[in-house]
Fold:
Amino acid sequence: MMADANDAARAIARLDYEALTAEAAQFQQRQLALVDRALQSLMLINGGALVALFTLIGSKASLHVHTQTLWDSFVLFAAGMCCTLLANFAAFFAQGLYYQSSQFQAWNAQQRAHDVPETHDFKSPHRAGDRSEIIGIFAAFAALAAFITGCAFAFAGVVPA
Structure:
């Protein structure tokens, strides 16, 4: 009776290992695709705004612009691009840490399947991934705020008072 219970526990642990390994791979793929699209969009809008301002200033049209306000918008768009890069790095680290956490859980399940005590701390990399993710989210929102504010400054710089 005891042997049957141990065999069942090992079989369940083996299934857990396989399921968690597959889940780790799927989680990483889905998250990376979503983060990639969002961050590409932030880089595109801030970078595109910079190019549009350069085009506007470089045009031959006689414009009455408020130079300081336009420079402020340049700074905001550039800051938005920097925040987007920070968000990209934070997403990269978060995904690596989440993957490590999931893999540690899978290895722990494998150890349980062989009646070996668990040796991998999966909570520490997961908490570090959470912190990195929070940094990335704040950086992405800062990039969006920089874009919106930069647009307001650019508009104010070209619209007559």
